[in-house]
Specification:
9 helices, rod-shaped, Heat Shock Protein 90
């Protein structure tokens, strides 16, 4: 018997004991009073008839003779004739007795019945009645033992599967704490413990996924940092060995480009890490139409092989609750990604669908294979071997949409290339 069983058993037994004491104090007295009334009503007729027999005897012979002793022997109940002054009745009982009623007196299971004998100063006394308490003696003790045994077995049968599930949960939690991320608990029922097991399994799966993503992110980050770092060391070595000023200046130019690439990569990593850790903090009401128009106007000034078409003017404001800086970053990443892959045209448009506002960025480039449309938003994931950025731009877009309660999807475009749809609640 472990502590869980003992605690539950003691709590239930204490509750039953308190209920029994309360019943003894408030319920049993009412039951006894009703039993007393039932006894008085049930035995009023035979006791009244017995009193009439004694009355007839007295009228005929002038004495009571020996019928009282004979009745006691025949029925096994004490029968006596006593003076009315010796009855232990109160004023109300004496008054009822004078009216010819049969009166019960004393404890329920030792009741005394009194009936007046008309024409005499005596009262018929019957009792105490040989009534037995149903739970008295060994019977009550046996019933108590049966109750305690049945309660113990019931609680043990109830807690045994609960204990087994809790032990399984404990083993699973300890295994997860040791780093065994594949450990899972058995979901054996649909009660609260089954729901807890499912929650622990979900936590383990998310923990395993997060650590896997973290390890992958660390691996990819170290790989991405290694390339500009190696170029930086190589360029510094060239600068040290260069004897001509032009060669030395060219080597220093390569050092500056490598440092700029490192700065850009570190900035992307910090942005992604901040979004993963803290989300958005300065959400305001932003009309996305003028934000996109200004952004497209700025990006059009940059040299690109593709033509950027901004969304047309419209009377209807499209307001979302976001952090303005982050929505500019997300849409800028999508547009720059489209300009990088487009053949000749990139189109930005807006639409509203119920309580959701969509920002669409279409291009006429090679598009995205169907199998890659989910993985494209993972950190450092690229579709080809060519280096276009660090593979963090779309991951940042996905995280910005996520922290604002929105979403981003990669689809096929009517222009023939890819369509990225960034959605936010209106």
């Amino acid at each position: 018997m472990d502590r869980l069983f003992l605690r539950v058993y003691l709590h239930i037994f204490a509750g039953v004991l308190i209920a029994g004491l309360a019943a003894r104090a408030f319920v049993i007295p009412r039951i006894n009073a009703q039993l007393a009334r039932n006894l008085e009503v049930s035995l009023a007729v035979p006791v009244g008839l017995m009193a009439e027999l004694f009355e007839a005897r007295y009228r005929e012979h002038g004495d009571f003779g020996g019928p009282a002793e004979e009745a006691s022997k025949r029925f096994g109940v004490p029968v006596a004739l006593i003076p009315q002054a010796r009855t232990p009745l109160d004023a109300e009982g004496a008054e009822r007795l004078a009216r010819g009623q049969v009166i019960r007196e004393g404890p329920v299971f030792a009741s005394m019945l009194y009936a007046r004998i008309e024409g005499t100063s005596h009262v018929l006394q019957v009792g105490p009645l040989p009534l037995m308490f149903p739970l008295g003696g060994a019977r009550g003790g046996a019933l108590l033992l049966l109750f305690v045994g049945g309660l113990s077995l019931g609680i043990f049968a109830l807690l045994r599967p609960v204990r087994r599930q809790l032990l399984d949960l404990r083993r699973t939690a300890e295994a997860l704490g040791r780093g065994e991320l594949g450990a899972r608990a058995q979901v054996g029922s649909r009660d609260v413990i089954g729901a807890l097991s499912a929650a622990v399994n979900h936590m383990g799966a998310e923990l395993q996924r997060s650590i896997t993503l973290r390890d992958e992110l660390l691996h990819n980050t170290s790989h991405e940092l290694r390339a500009p770092s190696q170029r930086l060391h190589f360029s510094l070595a060239l600068a040290r060995e260069a004897s001509e000023p032009d060669a030395r200046e060219h080597a220093f130019d390569r050092v500056e480009r490598s440092l700029s690439e490192l700065d850009a990569l570190i900035d992307e990593l910090l942005t992604y890490a901040r979004l993963k850790a803290h989300g958005a903090h300065k959400e305001t009401r932003v009309d996305v139409r003028p934000v996109l128009a200004a952004l497209c106007e700025t990006l059009t000034l940059l040299p690109h092989k593709a033509v950027l078409a901004a969304p047309g003017p419209d009377e209807e404001p499209l307001v979302v609750r976001v952090e303005a800086r982050l929505i500019e970053r997300a849409t800028s990443n999508l547009i720059l990604n489209a300009l990088r892959h487009a053949n000749s045209r990139v189109q930005v448009s807006l639409s509203r669908e119920g309580r959701v506002i969509h920002i669409h960025v279409d291009d006429d480039g090679p598009g995205i294979p169907l199998a890659e449309r989910e993985r494209i938003f993972e950190p450092f994931h690229r579709l080809d071997d060519e280096r276009h950025g660090f593979g963090l731009g779309l991951a940042i877009v996905h995280r910005i949409a996520e922290v604002h309660g929105g979403s981003v999807r990669a689809l096929g475009s009517a222009l023939g290339g890819a369509r990225f749809t960034l959605s936010f609640p209106a």
